[in-house]
From TrEMBL:
Gene giving rise to this polypeptide: proC
SUPFAM superfamilies: 6-phosphogluconate dehydrogenase C-terminal domain-like, NAD(P)-binding Rossmann-fold domains
Catalysed reaction equations from the record: L-proline + NADP(+) = (S)-1-pyrroline-5-carboxylate + NADPH + 2 H(+); L-proline + NAD(+) = (S)-1-pyrroline-5-carboxylate + NADH + 2 H(+)
Entry superkingdom: Bacteria
Functional description taken from the UniProt entry: Catalyzes the reduction of 1-pyrroline-5-carboxylate (PCA) to L-proline.
Alphabetized InterPro entries for the sequence: 6-PGluconate_DH-like_C_sf, NAD(P)-bd_dom_sf, P5C_Rdtase_cat_N, P5CR_dimer, Pyrroline-COOH_reductase
Name of the featured protein: Pyrroline-5-carboxylate reductase
UniProt similarity note: Belongs to the pyrroline-5-carboxylate reductase family.
Start and end residues of each Pyrroline-5-carboxylate reductase catalytic N-terminal domain: 2-91
Organism of provenance: Oenococcus oeni ATCC BAA-1163
Length: 261
Protein backbone atom coordinates (compact mmCIF):
# COMPACT_ATOMS: atom_id res chain seq x y z
CA UNK A 1 0.00 0.00 0.00
CA UNK A 2 1.45 3.35 -1.04
CA UNK A 3 0.31 6.77 0.17
CA UNK A 4 0.72 10.01 -1.76
CA UNK A 5 0.45 13.62 -0.57
CA UNK A 6 -0.20 16.37 -3.09
CA UNK A 7 1.04 19.25 -0.95
CA UNK A 8 3.77 19.40 1.67
CA UNK A 9 2.60 21.98 4.20
CA UNK A 10 2.19 21.80 7.95
CA UNK A 11 -0.80 19.46 7.88
CA UNK A 12 0.85 17.01 5.48
CA UNK A 13 3.94 17.05 7.65
CA UNK A 14 1.92 16.38 10.82
CA UNK A 15 -0.03 13.50 9.23
CA UNK A 16 3.08 11.90 7.78
CA UNK A 17 4.90 12.07 11.12
CA UNK A 18 1.89 10.45 12.76
CA UNK A 19 1.88 7.69 10.15
CA UNK A 20 5.58 7.02 10.68
CA UNK A 21 5.09 6.82 14.45
CA UNK A 22 2.32 4.27 13.82
CA UNK A 23 4.69 2.05 11.90
CA UNK A 24 4.04 3.07 8.29
CA UNK A 25 7.16 2.64 6.19
CA UNK A 26 8.81 5.79 4.88
CA UNK A 27 9.43 4.13 1.51
CA UNK A 28 5.65 3.76 1.10
CA UNK A 29 4.98 7.50 1.52
CA UNK A 30 5.25 9.89 -1.43
CA UNK A 31 4.99 13.67 -1.52
CA UNK A 32 4.76 16.15 -4.38
CA UNK A 33 4.97 19.94 -4.13
CA UNK A 34 6.90 22.48 -6.20
CA UNK A 35 8.28 24.29 -3.16
CA UNK A 36 8.49 22.27 0.06
CA UNK A 37 8.42 18.58 -0.89
CA UNK A 38 12.20 18.35 -1.20
CA UNK A 39 12.72 19.68 2.32
CA UNK A 40 10.03 17.47 3.82
CA UNK A 41 11.22 14.35 2.00
CA UNK A 42 14.77 14.89 3.21
CA UNK A 43 13.68 15.52 6.81
CA UNK A 44 11.41 12.46 7.00
CA UNK A 45 13.20 10.16 4.51
CA UNK A 46 10.12 9.84 2.29
CA UNK A 47 9.83 9.93 -1.51
CA UNK A 48 9.81 13.26 -3.35
CA UNK A 49 8.24 12.72 -6.78
CA UNK A 50 6.32 14.64 -9.43
CA UNK A 51 2.52 14.59 -9.62
CA UNK A 52 2.39 12.09 -12.48
CA UNK A 53 4.43 9.46 -10.66
CA UNK A 54 2.55 10.03 -7.41
CA UNK A 55 -0.81 9.51 -9.11
CA UNK A 56 0.45 6.47 -11.00
CA UNK A 57 2.13 4.72 -8.05
CA UNK A 58 0.00 5.51 -5.00
CA UNK A 59 -3.12 3.68 -3.82
CA UNK A 60 -4.42 6.44 -1.54
CA UNK A 61 -3.86 10.09 -2.42
CA UNK A 62 -4.23 13.00 0.01
CA UNK A 63 -5.13 16.40 -1.42
CA UNK A 64 -3.29 18.76 0.94
CA UNK A 65 -2.63 21.94 -1.02
CA UNK A 66 -4.49 25.25 -0.65
CA UNK A 67 -8.21 24.88 -1.50
CA UNK A 68 -8.04 27.68 -4.06
CA UNK A 69 -5.41 25.69 -5.97
CA UNK A 70 -7.77 22.80 -6.74
CA UNK A 71 -8.85 24.08 -10.15
CA UNK A 72 -5.34 24.89 -11.38
CA UNK A 73 -3.80 21.66 -10.12
CA UNK A 74 -6.50 19.47 -11.68
CA UNK A 75 -6.11 21.34 -14.97
CA UNK A 76 -2.34 21.03 -14.82
CA UNK A 77 -2.29 17.32 -13.97
CA UNK A 78 -5.44 16.23 -15.81
CA UNK A 79 -8.59 14.97 -14.08
CA UNK A 80 -8.34 11.66 -15.96
CA UNK A 81 -5.25 10.74 -13.91
CA UNK A 82 -7.41 10.67 -10.78
CA UNK A 83 -9.79 8.11 -12.29
CA UNK A 84 -10.71 5.31 -9.86
CA UNK A 85 -8.19 6.62 -7.34
CA UNK A 86 -9.03 6.73 -3.64
CA UNK A 87 -8.79 10.45 -2.84
CA UNK A 88 -8.70 11.81 0.71
CA UNK A 89 -9.23 15.58 0.73
CA UNK A 90 -8.14 17.84 3.60
CA UNK A 91 -9.09 20.96 1.63
CA UNK A 92 -10.94 22.81 4.38
CA UNK A 93 -14.37 23.97 3.24
CA UNK A 94 -14.26 22.29 -0.19
CA UNK A 95 -17.33 20.05 -0.21
CA UNK A 96 -17.75 16.54 -1.62
CA UNK A 97 -19.98 18.03 -4.33
CA UNK A 98 -17.27 20.48 -5.40
CA UNK A 99 -14.59 17.80 -5.29
CA UNK A 100 -16.73 15.49 -7.42
CA UNK A 101 -17.25 18.24 -10.00
CA UNK A 102 -13.47 18.53 -10.42
CA UNK A 103 -12.75 14.79 -10.09
CA UNK A 104 -15.88 13.00 -11.40
CA UNK A 105 -14.25 9.58 -11.78
CA UNK A 106 -12.39 9.49 -8.47
CA UNK A 107 -13.48 7.84 -5.21
CA UNK A 108 -13.55 10.75 -2.79
CA UNK A 109 -13.44 11.09 0.98
CA UNK A 110 -13.52 14.46 2.74
CA UNK A 111 -11.73 14.74 6.07
CA UNK A 112 -10.79 17.44 8.57
CA UNK A 113 -7.77 16.43 10.69
CA UNK A 114 -5.64 18.77 12.81
CA UNK A 115 -1.96 19.28 13.56
CA UNK A 116 -2.15 16.99 16.60
CA UNK A 117 -1.87 14.19 14.02
CA UNK A 118 1.89 14.56 14.51
CA UNK A 119 1.49 12.95 17.95
CA UNK A 120 -1.29 10.54 16.89
CA UNK A 121 -3.85 12.72 18.65
CA UNK A 122 -5.83 14.25 15.80
CA UNK A 123 -9.60 14.15 16.05
CA UNK A 124 -10.55 13.77 12.39
CA UNK A 125 -14.03 14.15 10.95
CA UNK A 126 -14.85 12.18 7.83
CA UNK A 127 -17.60 12.22 5.21
CA UNK A 128 -17.63 9.59 2.47
CA UNK A 129 -18.51 10.24 -1.14
CA UNK A 130 -20.26 7.90 -3.54
CA UNK A 131 -18.98 4.72 -5.18
CA UNK A 132 -16.62 3.64 -2.41
CA UNK A 133 -16.28 -0.09 -1.89
CA UNK A 134 -16.12 -1.76 1.52
CA UNK A 135 -12.38 -2.15 0.94
CA UNK A 136 -12.06 1.60 0.24
CA UNK A 137 -13.86 2.39 3.48
CA UNK A 138 -11.64 0.01 5.42
CA UNK A 139 -8.44 1.40 3.91
CA UNK A 140 -9.52 4.98 4.62
CA UNK A 141 -10.45 4.29 8.24
CA UNK A 142 -7.20 2.42 8.87
CA UNK A 143 -5.27 5.34 7.38
CA UNK A 144 -7.08 7.98 9.46
CA UNK A 145 -6.94 5.97 12.69
CA UNK A 146 -3.16 5.72 12.32
CA UNK A 147 -2.81 9.35 13.42
CA UNK A 148 -5.73 9.75 15.82
CA UNK A 149 -9.42 9.29 16.45
CA UNK A 150 -12.03 9.35 13.68
CA UNK A 151 -15.59 10.63 13.87
CA UNK A 152 -18.04 10.32 10.95
CA UNK A 153 -20.04 13.54 10.54
CA UNK A 154 -22.61 14.97 8.17
CA UNK A 155 -21.02 17.63 5.98
CA UNK A 156 -23.33 20.29 7.39
CA UNK A 157 -21.47 19.91 10.71
CA UNK A 158 -18.00 20.31 9.19
CA UNK A 159 -17.75 24.12 9.62
CA UNK A 160 -18.37 23.94 13.37
CA UNK A 161 -16.13 20.89 13.71
CA UNK A 162 -13.34 22.64 11.82
CA UNK A 163 -13.58 25.70 14.06
CA UNK A 164 -13.48 23.65 17.26
CA UNK A 165 -11.16 20.76 16.37
CA UNK A 166 -9.15 22.30 13.54
CA UNK A 167 -8.62 25.82 14.89
CA UNK A 168 -9.11 24.73 18.49
CA UNK A 169 -5.45 23.78 19.11
CA UNK A 170 -4.50 27.44 18.57
CA UNK A 171 -7.22 28.59 20.98
CA UNK A 172 -6.16 26.04 23.61
CA UNK A 173 -2.53 27.11 23.15
CA UNK A 174 -3.58 30.71 23.76
CA UNK A 175 -5.28 29.68 27.02
CA UNK A 176 -2.12 27.82 28.04
CA UNK A 177 -0.13 30.98 27.30
CA UNK A 178 -2.56 33.02 29.42
CA UNK A 179 -2.13 30.62 32.37
CA UNK A 180 1.65 30.70 31.90
CA UNK A 181 1.77 34.50 31.85
CA UNK A 182 -0.46 34.68 34.93
CA UNK A 183 2.05 32.49 36.76
CA UNK A 184 4.96 34.62 35.60
CA UNK A 185 3.24 37.76 36.90
CA UNK A 186 3.00 36.06 40.28
CA UNK A 187 6.77 35.43 40.32
CA UNK A 188 6.97 31.87 38.99
CA UNK A 189 9.78 31.08 36.54
CA UNK A 190 8.61 31.04 32.89
CA UNK A 191 9.57 27.40 32.27
CA UNK A 192 8.00 26.20 35.50
CA UNK A 193 4.87 28.25 34.86
CA UNK A 194 4.49 26.62 31.43
CA UNK A 195 4.82 23.16 32.96
CA UNK A 196 2.14 23.99 35.52
CA UNK A 197 -0.22 25.23 32.79
CA UNK A 198 0.41 22.22 30.53
CA UNK A 199 -0.11 19.62 33.24
CA UNK A 200 -3.21 21.41 34.49
CA UNK A 201 -4.76 21.25 31.00
CA UNK A 202 -3.63 17.65 30.49
CA UNK A 203 -4.83 16.50 33.90
CA UNK A 204 -8.21 18.22 33.55
CA UNK A 205 -8.73 16.66 30.13
CA UNK A 206 -7.85 13.18 31.39
CA UNK A 207 -10.12 13.71 34.40
CA UNK A 208 -13.14 14.31 32.15
CA UNK A 209 -12.20 11.61 29.63
CA UNK A 210 -11.57 8.87 32.19
CA UNK A 211 -14.26 9.72 34.73
CA UNK A 212 -17.05 10.33 32.25
CA UNK A 213 -17.91 13.55 34.05
CA UNK A 214 -19.13 16.60 32.18
CA UNK A 215 -17.14 19.83 32.17
CA UNK A 216 -19.79 21.40 34.42
CA UNK A 217 -19.39 18.60 36.96
CA UNK A 218 -15.63 19.17 37.13
CA UNK A 219 -16.20 22.90 37.58
CA UNK A 220 -18.56 22.27 40.52
CA UNK A 221 -16.13 19.78 42.04
CA UNK A 222 -13.24 22.28 42.03
CA UNK A 223 -15.05 25.59 42.48
CA UNK A 224 -16.53 25.12 45.96
CA UNK A 225 -18.94 27.89 46.98
CA UNK A 226 -17.13 30.66 48.80
CA UNK A 227 -13.70 29.37 47.85
CA UNK A 228 -10.86 31.01 45.93
CA UNK A 229 -11.63 29.08 42.71
CA UNK A 230 -15.22 30.30 42.84
CA UNK A 231 -13.95 33.90 42.98
CA UNK A 232 -11.74 33.29 39.94
CA UNK A 233 -14.59 31.58 38.11
CA UNK A 234 -16.85 34.52 38.85
CA UNK A 235 -14.24 36.85 37.34
CA UNK A 236 -14.20 34.78 34.15
CA UNK A 237 -17.98 34.92 33.95
CA UNK A 238 -18.02 38.68 34.53
CA UNK A 239 -15.57 39.04 31.64
CA UNK A 240 -17.77 36.90 29.37
CA UNK A 241 -15.29 34.04 28.98
CA UNK A 242 -17.73 31.56 27.42
CA UNK A 243 -19.20 34.24 25.15
CA UNK A 244 -15.69 35.21 24.03
CA UNK A 245 -14.92 31.60 23.09
CA UNK A 246 -18.24 31.31 21.24
CA UNK A 247 -17.46 34.49 19.32
CA UNK A 248 -14.06 33.11 18.33
CA UNK A 249 -15.69 29.94 16.99
CA UNK A 250 -18.29 31.96 15.07
CA UNK A 251 -15.61 34.23 13.59
CA UNK A 252 -13.72 31.15 12.39
CA UNK A 253 -16.85 29.61 10.85
CA UNK A 254 -17.87 32.87 9.18
CA UNK A 255 -14.42 33.33 7.67
CA UNK A 256 -14.71 29.95 5.98
CA UNK A 257 -18.19 30.75 4.69
CA UNK A 258 -17.06 34.07 3.21
CA UNK A 259 -13.97 32.56 1.64
CA UNK A 260 -15.60 29.57 0.00
CA UNK A 261 -19.13 30.65 -0.87
Amino acid sequence: MKYGFLGAGNLSSAIIMGLLKSGFRSEDIFVSSPHSAAILSKRLAINNVDEDRLLADCDLIVLAFLPEQLDSIVQQVGSEKFANKLIVSVLGSTSLKELTEFLPTAKIVRVLPNVNAEFNNSLTSVAFGQNLSNEDLKLTKNFLQAFGTVIELAERDFPAFSAIAGSGPAFVALFIKALQEAGIKQGIDSKESLQIALHTIKGSTENILQSGKTADQLVKKVASPGGSTADGFESLEENHFIETVNNAILATINHGRKKFR
